[in-house]
Design goal:
Length: 577
Protein backbone atom coordinates (compact mmCIF):
# COMPACT_ATOMS: atom_id res chain seq x y z
CA UNK A 1 0.00 0.00 0.00
CA UNK A 2 1.11 3.65 -0.40
CA UNK A 3 3.27 5.03 2.43
CA UNK A 4 1.36 6.48 5.39
CA UNK A 5 3.89 9.01 6.65
CA UNK A 6 3.66 11.44 3.75
CA UNK A 7 3.50 15.13 4.68
CA UNK A 8 -0.08 16.19 4.16
CA UNK A 9 -1.86 19.48 3.62
CA UNK A 10 1.25 21.63 3.38
CA UNK A 11 1.78 24.20 0.66
CA UNK A 12 4.50 23.82 -1.95
CA UNK A 13 7.60 25.89 -1.39
CA UNK A 14 8.34 26.97 -4.94
CA UNK A 15 9.83 30.39 -5.52
CA UNK A 16 7.30 33.17 -6.23
CA UNK A 17 6.59 33.73 -9.90
CA UNK A 18 5.08 36.56 -11.92
CA UNK A 19 1.50 37.64 -11.29
CA UNK A 20 -0.70 34.64 -12.23
CA UNK A 21 -3.37 34.85 -14.89
CA UNK A 22 -7.01 34.32 -14.04
CA UNK A 23 -8.26 30.76 -14.49
CA UNK A 24 -11.75 29.32 -14.82
CA UNK A 25 -11.98 26.49 -12.29
CA UNK A 26 -14.61 23.83 -12.91
CA UNK A 27 -16.82 22.35 -10.21
CA UNK A 28 -17.91 19.59 -12.59
CA UNK A 29 -14.80 18.28 -14.42
CA UNK A 30 -14.43 19.07 -18.10
CA UNK A 31 -13.85 15.43 -19.04
CA UNK A 32 -17.35 14.67 -17.73
CA UNK A 33 -18.93 17.67 -19.45
CA UNK A 34 -17.36 16.58 -22.75
CA UNK A 35 -19.58 13.49 -22.67
CA UNK A 36 -22.53 15.89 -23.01
CA UNK A 37 -20.92 17.62 -25.99
CA UNK A 38 -23.27 18.64 -28.81
CA UNK A 39 -22.27 19.44 -32.38
CA UNK A 40 -19.14 18.33 -34.25
CA UNK A 41 -16.18 17.07 -32.27
CA UNK A 42 -13.29 19.50 -32.00
CA UNK A 43 -9.62 18.69 -31.93
CA UNK A 44 -8.41 18.58 -28.32
CA UNK A 45 -5.17 20.19 -29.53
CA UNK A 46 -7.13 23.44 -29.69
CA UNK A 47 -7.64 23.23 -25.92
CA UNK A 48 -3.95 22.66 -25.33
CA UNK A 49 -2.88 25.57 -27.54
CA UNK A 50 -5.48 28.12 -26.42
CA UNK A 51 -6.34 27.02 -22.89
CA UNK A 52 -10.03 27.23 -23.84
CA UNK A 53 -12.14 24.09 -24.27
CA UNK A 54 -13.85 24.34 -27.69
CA UNK A 55 -16.53 21.78 -26.79
CA UNK A 56 -20.11 22.92 -26.32
CA UNK A 57 -23.07 21.72 -24.26
CA UNK A 58 -26.76 22.50 -24.05
CA UNK A 59 -27.19 24.69 -20.98
CA UNK A 60 -30.52 25.67 -19.42
CA UNK A 61 -30.09 28.51 -16.94
CA UNK A 62 -32.79 28.10 -14.28
CA UNK A 63 -32.56 31.71 -13.09
CA UNK A 64 -33.09 33.29 -16.50
CA UNK A 65 -35.14 30.49 -18.07
CA UNK A 66 -32.90 30.54 -21.18
CA UNK A 67 -31.69 27.47 -23.09
CA UNK A 68 -28.62 27.95 -25.24
CA UNK A 69 -25.38 26.30 -26.30
CA UNK A 70 -22.34 27.28 -24.25
CA UNK A 71 -18.66 26.50 -24.27
CA UNK A 72 -17.56 23.82 -21.80
CA UNK A 73 -14.82 26.21 -20.72
CA UNK A 74 -17.37 28.70 -19.34
CA UNK A 75 -19.93 26.59 -17.46
CA UNK A 76 -20.20 24.75 -14.12
CA UNK A 77 -17.44 26.63 -12.36
CA UNK A 78 -16.17 30.07 -11.51
CA UNK A 79 -13.07 32.14 -11.99
CA UNK A 80 -10.22 31.48 -9.54
CA UNK A 81 -12.42 29.26 -7.36
CA UNK A 82 -9.45 27.36 -5.86
CA UNK A 83 -6.96 30.22 -5.97
CA UNK A 84 -4.99 30.41 -2.73
CA UNK A 85 -3.99 34.03 -2.18
CA UNK A 86 -2.04 33.00 0.93
CA UNK A 87 0.30 30.88 -1.21
CA UNK A 88 2.01 33.40 -3.54
CA UNK A 89 4.54 30.81 -4.69
CA UNK A 90 1.73 28.98 -6.55
CA UNK A 91 -1.79 30.31 -6.10
CA UNK A 92 -3.18 27.59 -8.40
CA UNK A 93 -1.54 24.67 -6.61
CA UNK A 94 -4.86 23.17 -5.45
CA UNK A 95 -6.32 23.34 -8.95
CA UNK A 96 -3.22 21.64 -10.37
CA UNK A 97 -3.49 18.82 -7.84
CA UNK A 98 -7.20 18.47 -8.59
CA UNK A 99 -6.36 18.15 -12.27
CA UNK A 100 -3.97 15.28 -11.52
CA UNK A 101 -6.66 13.46 -9.54
CA UNK A 102 -9.22 14.07 -12.28
CA UNK A 103 -6.83 12.68 -14.89
CA UNK A 104 -6.35 9.44 -12.95
CA UNK A 105 -10.09 9.07 -12.27
CA UNK A 106 -10.88 9.76 -15.94
CA UNK A 107 -8.94 6.64 -16.97
CA UNK A 108 -11.05 4.43 -14.70
CA UNK A 109 -14.28 6.11 -15.83
CA UNK A 110 -13.28 5.47 -19.44
CA UNK A 111 -12.91 1.77 -18.60
CA UNK A 112 -16.42 1.77 -17.05
CA UNK A 113 -17.92 3.07 -20.27
CA UNK A 114 -15.99 0.61 -22.42
CA UNK A 115 -17.38 -2.33 -20.42
CA UNK A 116 -21.08 -1.36 -20.55
CA UNK A 117 -21.91 -3.89 -23.24
CA UNK A 118 -20.34 -6.72 -21.22
CA UNK A 119 -22.40 -5.81 -18.16
CA UNK A 120 -19.50 -6.24 -15.74
CA UNK A 121 -16.30 -4.34 -15.01
CA UNK A 122 -13.29 -5.30 -12.88
CA UNK A 123 -11.34 -2.56 -11.09
CA UNK A 124 -8.16 -2.94 -9.07
CA UNK A 125 -8.12 -1.57 -5.53
CA UNK A 126 -5.61 1.17 -6.37
CA UNK A 127 -7.90 2.50 -9.13
CA UNK A 128 -10.98 2.09 -6.94
CA UNK A 129 -9.27 4.10 -4.18
CA UNK A 130 -8.61 6.89 -6.66
CA UNK A 131 -12.21 6.80 -7.85
CA UNK A 132 -13.48 6.89 -4.28
CA UNK A 133 -11.27 9.87 -3.49
CA UNK A 134 -12.34 11.61 -6.69
CA UNK A 135 -16.02 11.21 -5.80
CA UNK A 136 -15.53 12.61 -2.30
CA UNK A 137 -13.34 15.51 -3.36
CA UNK A 138 -15.67 16.50 -6.21
CA UNK A 139 -18.48 16.88 -3.68
CA UNK A 140 -16.27 18.47 -1.03
CA UNK A 141 -14.76 21.05 -3.36
CA UNK A 142 -18.24 22.23 -4.31
CA UNK A 143 -19.60 22.48 -0.77
CA UNK A 144 -16.54 22.45 1.46
CA UNK A 145 -15.96 26.20 1.73
CA UNK A 146 -19.07 26.34 3.95
CA UNK A 147 -18.01 23.40 6.12
CA UNK A 148 -15.43 25.51 7.93
CA UNK A 149 -17.35 28.76 8.23
CA UNK A 150 -17.71 29.27 12.01
CA UNK A 151 -20.95 31.18 11.44
CA UNK A 152 -22.46 28.14 9.70
CA UNK A 153 -20.70 25.42 11.70
CA UNK A 154 -20.64 26.50 15.37
CA UNK A 155 -19.67 22.97 16.46
CA UNK A 156 -16.28 23.52 14.81
CA UNK A 157 -15.63 27.01 16.21
CA UNK A 158 -13.07 26.11 18.91
CA UNK A 159 -11.35 23.57 16.67
CA UNK A 160 -11.13 26.18 13.89
CA UNK A 161 -9.47 28.71 16.22
CA UNK A 162 -6.79 26.17 17.12
CA UNK A 163 -6.35 24.98 13.52
CA UNK A 164 -6.09 28.48 12.04
CA UNK A 165 -3.48 29.46 14.63
CA UNK A 166 -1.43 26.28 14.21
CA UNK A 167 -1.39 26.45 10.39
CA UNK A 168 -1.36 30.23 9.91
CA UNK A 169 -4.76 30.28 8.18
CA UNK A 170 -6.24 33.77 8.02
CA UNK A 171 -9.80 32.82 7.03
CA UNK A 172 -12.08 29.78 6.96
CA UNK A 173 -11.46 29.66 3.19
CA UNK A 174 -7.76 29.13 3.93
CA UNK A 175 -8.79 26.22 6.17
CA UNK A 176 -10.92 24.78 3.36
CA UNK A 177 -8.01 24.95 0.89
CA UNK A 178 -5.53 23.45 3.33
CA UNK A 179 -7.86 20.56 4.08
CA UNK A 180 -8.39 20.15 0.34
CA UNK A 181 -4.62 19.62 0.12
CA UNK A 182 -4.89 17.04 2.90
CA UNK A 183 -7.44 15.06 0.88
CA UNK A 184 -5.42 15.40 -2.33
CA UNK A 185 -1.98 14.64 -0.88
CA UNK A 186 -2.90 11.84 1.53
CA UNK A 187 -3.46 8.29 0.23
CA UNK A 188 -7.04 7.07 0.44
CA UNK A 189 -6.15 4.34 2.93
CA UNK A 190 -4.31 6.78 5.19
CA UNK A 191 -7.30 9.14 5.43
CA UNK A 192 -9.44 6.16 6.45
CA UNK A 193 -6.80 5.17 9.02
CA UNK A 194 -6.80 8.74 10.40
CA UNK A 195 -10.54 8.47 11.00
CA UNK A 196 -10.15 5.12 12.77
CA UNK A 197 -7.45 6.68 14.95
CA UNK A 198 -9.99 9.29 16.07
CA UNK A 199 -12.56 6.54 16.77
CA UNK A 200 -9.97 4.67 18.85
CA UNK A 201 -9.15 7.79 20.83
CA UNK A 202 -12.68 9.11 21.44
CA UNK A 203 -14.93 6.15 20.78
CA UNK A 204 -17.06 5.69 17.68
CA UNK A 205 -20.25 7.26 19.00
CA UNK A 206 -18.42 10.08 20.77
CA UNK A 207 -16.48 11.07 17.66
CA UNK A 208 -19.69 11.35 15.65
CA UNK A 209 -21.42 13.26 18.43
CA UNK A 210 -18.56 15.76 18.54
CA UNK A 211 -18.92 16.49 14.83
CA UNK A 212 -22.56 17.40 15.49
CA UNK A 213 -22.27 19.19 18.84
CA UNK A 214 -18.73 20.39 19.38
CA UNK A 215 -15.37 19.09 18.14
CA UNK A 216 -12.55 18.74 20.64
CA UNK A 217 -10.12 21.55 19.76
CA UNK A 218 -7.20 19.11 19.88
CA UNK A 219 -8.79 16.50 17.59
CA UNK A 220 -6.18 16.04 14.88
CA UNK A 221 -8.26 15.02 11.85
CA UNK A 222 -12.02 15.53 12.25
CA UNK A 223 -12.12 16.09 8.49
CA UNK A 224 -11.16 12.45 7.97
CA UNK A 225 -14.44 11.23 9.50
CA UNK A 226 -16.67 12.45 6.66
CA UNK A 227 -14.28 10.82 4.18
CA UNK A 228 -14.24 7.50 6.04
CA UNK A 229 -18.04 7.44 6.31
CA UNK A 230 -18.42 7.74 2.54
CA UNK A 231 -15.57 5.31 1.89
CA UNK A 232 -16.62 2.50 4.23
CA UNK A 233 -20.30 2.91 5.05
CA UNK A 234 -21.42 3.00 1.40
CA UNK A 235 -20.83 0.47 -1.37
CA UNK A 236 -20.38 1.55 -4.96
CA UNK A 237 -22.77 0.74 -7.79
CA UNK A 238 -22.58 1.52 -11.50
CA UNK A 239 -25.95 2.40 -13.04
CA UNK A 240 -26.63 2.55 -16.77
CA UNK A 241 -29.54 4.57 -18.18
CA UNK A 242 -32.19 2.78 -20.24
CA UNK A 243 -31.25 2.73 -23.93
CA UNK A 244 -33.99 5.15 -25.07
CA UNK A 245 -33.33 7.59 -22.24
CA UNK A 246 -30.33 9.27 -20.63
CA UNK A 247 -29.14 10.83 -17.39
CA UNK A 248 -29.12 14.59 -17.05
CA UNK A 249 -26.56 16.86 -15.44
CA UNK A 250 -27.24 19.72 -13.05
CA UNK A 251 -25.09 21.87 -10.80
CA UNK A 252 -25.89 19.54 -7.89
CA UNK A 253 -25.91 16.17 -9.72
CA UNK A 254 -22.39 15.29 -8.61
CA UNK A 255 -22.62 14.20 -5.00
CA UNK A 256 -26.37 14.63 -4.49
CA UNK A 257 -27.78 12.66 -1.55
CA UNK A 258 -31.09 10.81 -1.75
CA UNK A 259 -33.17 8.99 0.81
CA UNK A 260 -33.16 8.85 4.60
CA UNK A 261 -33.20 6.00 7.10
CA UNK A 262 -35.32 6.29 10.26
CA UNK A 263 -32.09 7.38 12.00
CA UNK A 264 -31.79 10.19 9.38
CA UNK A 265 -28.73 8.68 7.72
CA UNK A 266 -28.41 9.24 3.98
CA UNK A 267 -29.22 6.18 1.85
CA UNK A 268 -27.67 7.18 -1.50
CA UNK A 269 -25.15 9.55 -2.99
CA UNK A 270 -25.50 10.15 -6.73
CA UNK A 271 -22.72 11.07 -9.16
CA UNK A 272 -23.69 11.52 -12.82
CA UNK A 273 -20.60 10.96 -14.96
CA UNK A 274 -22.18 10.86 -18.44
CA UNK A 275 -25.57 10.71 -20.18
CA UNK A 276 -25.29 6.91 -19.92
CA UNK A 277 -23.60 6.19 -16.58
CA UNK A 278 -24.01 7.26 -12.97
CA UNK A 279 -22.04 6.16 -9.93
CA UNK A 280 -24.30 5.49 -6.94
CA UNK A 281 -23.17 4.95 -3.36
CA UNK A 282 -25.68 2.99 -1.28
CA UNK A 283 -25.60 2.66 2.49
CA UNK A 284 -24.10 -0.54 3.94
CA UNK A 285 -26.25 -0.36 7.06
CA UNK A 286 -29.64 -1.03 5.45
CA UNK A 287 -31.59 -4.12 6.59
CA UNK A 288 -31.25 -7.23 4.44
CA UNK A 289 -34.26 -8.32 2.35
CA UNK A 290 -36.83 -10.01 4.59
CA UNK A 291 -35.54 -8.42 7.78
CA UNK A 292 -37.96 -6.25 9.78
CA UNK A 293 -37.36 -2.58 9.15
CA UNK A 294 -38.84 0.84 9.74
CA UNK A 295 -40.07 2.73 6.67
CA UNK A 296 -37.32 4.17 4.48
CA UNK A 297 -37.75 7.46 2.65
CA UNK A 298 -36.17 6.73 -0.72
CA UNK A 299 -37.32 6.76 -4.33
CA UNK A 300 -34.34 4.71 -5.53
CA UNK A 301 -34.10 2.00 -2.87
CA UNK A 302 -36.30 -0.42 -4.86
CA UNK A 303 -33.65 -0.53 -7.61
CA UNK A 304 -31.45 -3.63 -7.06
CA UNK A 305 -27.76 -2.89 -6.59
CA UNK A 306 -25.33 -5.75 -6.16
CA UNK A 307 -22.27 -5.38 -3.98
CA UNK A 308 -18.98 -5.90 -5.86
CA UNK A 309 -17.28 -9.29 -5.70
CA UNK A 310 -13.69 -9.13 -4.46
CA UNK A 311 -10.73 -11.30 -5.35
CA UNK A 312 -7.61 -10.64 -3.29
CA UNK A 313 -4.10 -11.26 -4.54
CA UNK A 314 -3.85 -14.18 -2.12
CA UNK A 315 -6.84 -15.83 -3.77
CA UNK A 316 -9.29 -15.11 -0.93
CA UNK A 317 -12.60 -13.34 -1.52
CA UNK A 318 -12.48 -11.27 1.68
CA UNK A 319 -10.06 -10.12 4.37
CA UNK A 320 -10.53 -12.13 7.56
CA UNK A 321 -9.39 -10.45 10.77
CA UNK A 322 -8.75 -11.99 14.16
CA UNK A 323 -9.38 -8.56 15.73
CA UNK A 324 -12.00 -6.44 13.93
CA UNK A 325 -10.70 -3.31 15.67
CA UNK A 326 -7.10 -3.78 14.56
CA UNK A 327 -6.72 -1.65 11.43
CA UNK A 328 -3.03 -2.51 11.14
CA UNK A 329 -3.95 -6.14 10.53
CA UNK A 330 -6.41 -5.06 7.83
CA UNK A 331 -3.71 -2.91 6.22
CA UNK A 332 -1.31 -5.85 6.10
CA UNK A 333 -3.78 -7.93 4.11
CA UNK A 334 -5.02 -5.43 1.53
CA UNK A 335 -3.11 -4.96 -1.70
CA UNK A 336 -3.37 -2.32 -4.44
CA UNK A 337 -3.76 -5.25 -6.87
CA UNK A 338 -6.89 -6.70 -5.25
CA UNK A 339 -9.67 -6.98 -7.85
CA UNK A 340 -13.31 -5.86 -7.46
CA UNK A 341 -15.86 -6.95 -10.06
CA UNK A 342 -19.00 -4.84 -10.40
CA UNK A 343 -22.20 -5.93 -12.08
CA UNK A 344 -23.58 -2.93 -13.95
CA UNK A 345 -27.15 -2.09 -12.93
CA UNK A 346 -29.09 -1.63 -16.17
CA UNK A 347 -32.07 0.57 -15.36
CA UNK A 348 -35.52 0.27 -16.88
CA UNK A 349 -37.20 3.32 -18.37
CA UNK A 350 -39.23 3.87 -15.19
CA UNK A 351 -36.11 3.60 -13.05
CA UNK A 352 -34.21 6.04 -15.24
CA UNK A 353 -37.15 8.44 -14.96
CA UNK A 354 -37.16 8.09 -11.18
CA UNK A 355 -33.44 8.85 -11.08
CA UNK A 356 -33.82 11.95 -13.25
CA UNK A 357 -36.77 13.29 -11.29
CA UNK A 358 -34.54 13.29 -8.20
CA UNK A 359 -32.00 15.33 -10.15
CA UNK A 360 -34.64 17.80 -11.37
CA UNK A 361 -36.29 18.07 -7.97
CA UNK A 362 -33.00 19.08 -6.32
CA UNK A 363 -31.71 21.45 -9.01
CA UNK A 364 -30.91 24.80 -7.43
CA UNK A 365 -32.90 27.82 -8.59
CA UNK A 366 -29.63 29.58 -9.45
CA UNK A 367 -28.20 26.47 -11.12
CA UNK A 368 -28.39 24.88 -14.55
CA UNK A 369 -29.43 21.74 -16.43
CA UNK A 370 -27.41 20.08 -19.20
CA UNK A 371 -28.51 17.17 -21.38
CA UNK A 372 -27.55 15.47 -24.62
CA UNK A 373 -30.74 14.62 -26.53
CA UNK A 374 -33.48 17.24 -26.87
CA UNK A 375 -36.31 14.77 -27.40
CA UNK A 376 -35.12 12.56 -24.55
CA UNK A 377 -34.97 15.59 -22.28
CA UNK A 378 -38.48 16.57 -23.31
CA UNK A 379 -39.76 13.09 -22.45
CA UNK A 380 -37.97 13.24 -19.10
CA UNK A 381 -39.53 16.61 -18.35
CA UNK A 382 -42.95 15.26 -19.22
CA UNK A 383 -42.50 12.54 -16.58
CA UNK A 384 -41.54 15.16 -14.00
CA UNK A 385 -44.32 17.46 -15.20
CA UNK A 386 -47.06 14.88 -14.73
CA UNK A 387 -46.00 13.66 -11.30
CA UNK A 388 -48.26 15.07 -8.56
CA UNK A 389 -45.25 15.00 -6.21
CA UNK A 390 -43.52 17.73 -8.22
CA UNK A 391 -46.57 19.72 -9.25
CA UNK A 392 -45.44 22.80 -7.33
CA UNK A 393 -41.99 22.72 -9.03
CA UNK A 394 -43.27 22.79 -12.61
CA UNK A 395 -42.66 26.52 -12.96
CA UNK A 396 -38.87 25.95 -12.75
CA UNK A 397 -38.94 24.11 -16.07
CA UNK A 398 -41.78 25.88 -17.89
CA UNK A 399 -39.38 27.79 -20.17
CA UNK A 400 -37.35 24.66 -20.92
CA UNK A 401 -40.51 22.75 -21.82
CA UNK A 402 -41.48 25.55 -24.16
CA UNK A 403 -38.03 25.66 -25.80
CA UNK A 404 -38.04 21.90 -26.37
CA UNK A 405 -41.61 21.72 -27.68
CA UNK A 406 -41.54 24.48 -30.30
CA UNK A 407 -43.53 23.20 -33.29
CA UNK A 408 -41.74 23.59 -36.63
CA UNK A 409 -44.95 23.94 -38.64
CA UNK A 410 -48.68 24.37 -37.91
CA UNK A 411 -50.80 21.28 -37.54
CA UNK A 412 -53.33 20.84 -40.34
CA UNK A 413 -56.00 18.29 -41.31
CA UNK A 414 -53.79 17.09 -44.14
CA UNK A 415 -51.11 16.06 -41.66
CA UNK A 416 -53.37 14.17 -39.23
CA UNK A 417 -52.84 10.70 -40.63
CA UNK A 418 -49.11 11.00 -41.23
CA UNK A 419 -48.49 12.75 -37.89
CA UNK A 420 -50.45 10.54 -35.50
CA UNK A 421 -50.97 7.07 -36.93
CA UNK A 422 -47.38 5.82 -36.64
CA UNK A 423 -46.69 7.66 -33.38
CA UNK A 424 -49.31 6.83 -30.78
CA UNK A 425 -52.24 4.55 -31.57
CA UNK A 426 -54.18 5.30 -28.39
CA UNK A 427 -53.95 9.07 -28.78
CA UNK A 428 -54.60 8.85 -32.51
CA UNK A 429 -57.81 6.85 -32.02
CA UNK A 430 -59.02 9.27 -29.34
CA UNK A 431 -58.32 12.34 -31.49
CA UNK A 432 -59.85 10.84 -34.61
CA UNK A 433 -62.97 9.91 -32.65
CA UNK A 434 -63.38 13.58 -31.78
CA UNK A 435 -62.45 14.94 -35.23
CA UNK A 436 -64.92 12.60 -36.97
CA UNK A 437 -67.56 13.16 -34.25
CA UNK A 438 -67.75 9.45 -33.51
CA UNK A 439 -67.14 9.82 -29.79
CA UNK A 440 -69.89 11.69 -27.96
CA UNK A 441 -69.37 13.82 -24.84
CA UNK A 442 -71.78 15.65 -22.55
CA UNK A 443 -69.69 18.83 -22.72
CA UNK A 444 -66.50 20.39 -24.02
CA UNK A 445 -65.02 19.90 -20.55
CA UNK A 446 -65.63 16.14 -20.73
CA UNK A 447 -64.10 15.99 -24.21
CA UNK A 448 -60.98 17.94 -23.17
CA UNK A 449 -60.63 15.90 -19.97
CA UNK A 450 -60.56 12.64 -21.95
CA UNK A 451 -57.52 13.87 -23.88
CA UNK A 452 -55.91 15.58 -20.89
CA UNK A 453 -55.90 12.29 -18.99
CA UNK A 454 -54.05 10.67 -21.88
CA UNK A 455 -51.53 13.51 -22.00
CA UNK A 456 -50.88 13.13 -18.29
CA UNK A 457 -49.11 9.88 -19.22
CA UNK A 458 -47.08 11.45 -22.01
CA UNK A 459 -43.92 9.91 -20.60
CA UNK A 460 -45.15 6.76 -22.35
CA UNK A 461 -45.84 8.56 -25.64
CA UNK A 462 -43.53 9.43 -28.45
CA UNK A 463 -43.48 13.09 -29.40
CA UNK A 464 -46.01 14.25 -31.99
CA UNK A 465 -47.31 17.71 -33.02
CA UNK A 466 -50.41 17.59 -30.80
CA UNK A 467 -48.32 16.65 -27.74
CA UNK A 468 -45.64 19.28 -28.35
CA UNK A 469 -48.30 21.93 -29.01
CA UNK A 470 -49.97 21.06 -25.70
CA UNK A 471 -46.66 21.26 -23.82
CA UNK A 472 -45.80 24.56 -25.47
CA UNK A 473 -49.14 26.20 -24.66
CA UNK A 474 -49.39 24.91 -21.09
CA UNK A 475 -45.82 25.86 -20.22
CA UNK A 476 -46.35 29.31 -21.80
CA UNK A 477 -49.46 29.92 -19.65
CA UNK A 478 -47.77 28.73 -16.46
CA UNK A 479 -44.68 30.83 -17.08
CA UNK A 480 -46.84 33.88 -17.81
CA UNK A 481 -48.77 33.31 -14.58
CA UNK A 482 -45.62 33.03 -12.45
CA UNK A 483 -44.14 36.15 -14.08
CA UNK A 484 -47.41 38.09 -13.72
CA UNK A 485 -47.58 37.56 -9.95
CA UNK A 486 -44.08 38.27 -8.61
CA UNK A 487 -43.25 38.03 -4.95
CA UNK A 488 -43.61 35.23 -2.39
CA UNK A 489 -45.16 31.97 -3.44
CA UNK A 490 -48.35 30.58 -1.91
CA UNK A 491 -48.09 27.07 -3.34
CA UNK A 492 -49.63 24.11 -1.55
CA UNK A 493 -47.34 21.04 -1.72
CA UNK A 494 -50.36 18.77 -1.22
CA UNK A 495 -53.86 19.35 -2.45
CA UNK A 496 -57.30 18.18 -1.40
CA UNK A 497 -58.89 19.20 -4.73
CA UNK A 498 -59.46 17.03 -7.81
CA UNK A 499 -60.98 17.77 -11.20
CA UNK A 500 -64.53 16.48 -11.53
CA UNK A 501 -65.10 13.61 -13.92
CA UNK A 502 -67.87 15.42 -15.81
CA UNK A 503 -69.53 18.85 -16.07
CA UNK A 504 -72.73 20.02 -17.76
CA UNK A 505 -72.35 21.86 -21.04
CA UNK A 506 -73.35 25.31 -19.72
CA UNK A 507 -70.89 25.24 -16.82
CA UNK A 508 -68.19 23.87 -19.15
CA UNK A 509 -68.63 26.86 -21.47
CA UNK A 510 -68.46 29.36 -18.59
CA UNK A 511 -65.30 27.81 -17.21
CA UNK A 512 -63.45 27.79 -20.55
CA UNK A 513 -64.56 31.38 -21.28
CA UNK A 514 -63.34 32.52 -17.85
CA UNK A 515 -60.02 30.75 -18.24
CA UNK A 516 -59.41 31.99 -21.79
CA UNK A 517 -60.12 35.60 -20.79
CA UNK A 518 -57.82 35.28 -17.78
CA UNK A 519 -55.02 33.79 -19.86
CA UNK A 520 -55.24 36.15 -22.83
CA UNK A 521 -56.21 39.41 -21.07
CA UNK A 522 -54.88 39.24 -17.51
CA UNK A 523 -51.74 37.22 -18.24
CA UNK A 524 -51.26 38.39 -21.83
CA UNK A 525 -50.29 34.89 -22.94
CA UNK A 526 -50.68 34.20 -26.67
CA UNK A 527 -51.31 30.52 -27.16
CA UNK A 528 -50.36 28.80 -30.42
CA UNK A 529 -53.30 26.88 -31.90
CA UNK A 530 -55.20 26.56 -35.19
CA UNK A 531 -58.87 27.33 -35.71
CA UNK A 532 -59.72 23.79 -36.81
CA UNK A 533 -61.24 21.08 -34.62
CA UNK A 534 -57.88 19.83 -33.33
CA UNK A 535 -56.64 23.35 -32.69
CA UNK A 536 -59.68 24.28 -30.61
CA UNK A 537 -59.45 20.97 -28.77
CA UNK A 538 -55.79 21.60 -28.06
CA UNK A 539 -56.63 25.03 -26.63
CA UNK A 540 -59.25 23.55 -24.30
CA UNK A 541 -56.89 20.78 -23.17
CA UNK A 542 -54.19 23.37 -22.36
CA UNK A 543 -56.70 25.49 -20.43
CA UNK A 544 -57.79 22.40 -18.51
CA UNK A 545 -54.17 21.61 -17.67
CA UNK A 546 -53.78 25.18 -16.43
CA UNK A 547 -56.92 24.79 -14.31
CA UNK A 548 -55.50 21.61 -12.80
CA UNK A 549 -52.29 23.49 -11.98
CA UNK A 550 -54.27 26.38 -10.49
CA UNK A 551 -55.27 24.00 -7.73
CA UNK A 552 -51.75 24.50 -6.37
CA UNK A 553 -51.49 28.21 -7.26
CA UNK A 554 -55.05 29.15 -6.25
CA UNK A 555 -54.10 31.26 -3.18
CA UNK A 556 -51.86 33.46 -5.36
CA UNK A 557 -54.60 33.92 -7.97
CA UNK A 558 -57.27 34.56 -5.34
CA UNK A 559 -55.23 37.40 -3.88
CA UNK A 560 -53.95 38.95 -7.09
CA UNK A 561 -55.84 37.84 -10.15
CA UNK A 562 -59.40 36.66 -10.68
CA UNK A 563 -62.59 38.25 -9.47
CA UNK A 564 -64.62 36.47 -6.81
CA UNK A 565 -67.24 35.42 -9.38
CA UNK A 566 -64.60 33.99 -11.70
CA UNK A 567 -63.01 32.09 -8.82
CA UNK A 568 -66.37 30.61 -7.89
CA UNK A 569 -66.88 29.58 -11.51
CA UNK A 570 -63.59 27.72 -11.88
CA UNK A 571 -63.92 26.18 -8.42
CA UNK A 572 -67.02 24.37 -9.69
CA UNK A 573 -64.68 22.16 -11.69
CA UNK A 574 -63.19 20.69 -8.49
CA UNK A 575 -64.34 18.38 -5.74
CA UNK A 576 -62.74 17.84 -2.33
CA UNK A 577 -61.10 14.58 -1.32
Amino acid sequence: MPPRNKRRGARSTLAPTQRPQDQYHHIIPRFILRRFHVGPRNDEKITIRSGVDPGQVLYYDLASGILDVRSIGTVYGQKNFYRDASNPSNVNEVEEKLSLLEGKAALTIEILHSELARGKVTIKRRHLDILRKFMFVMHYRKMGSTYFDPNLQPSLRQWLIRYQTEHQCQTHVDVWLRIMRYYLDTPHSQIVDDAHAEYKKYGYAEAFEQVATGVDPIMEHPESIAYQVQAERYFLGIWEAEATSEFIMTTSAFGLWEGLTPELDTIHRIFVISPHVALVLRSNVLPLPGEPQAPMQSVLLSIPQEKPKSRLVNGETAIRLSDMNDMSEFNRHRSPNDDFTFTITKLTLDQTDAFNTIILQNARSDGAVTFLGRERMLRTLRVFWNSPLYKFLRHKYASLMRYLSIIPQPLSHASISSSFEPVDAELYVALMGIVLNRTKFASGYDRALSIYRLLQTTSRRRTCPFVTQHIYNLSLIMESCVNHFPGPSFRKPQSSLRLKMSLPSELSLRIFTTLENFVSITLGAKMDFDEDVLGKLGKEVALLGFLDWLDVEMPMVLINGMSVMDILTVMDAFYFV
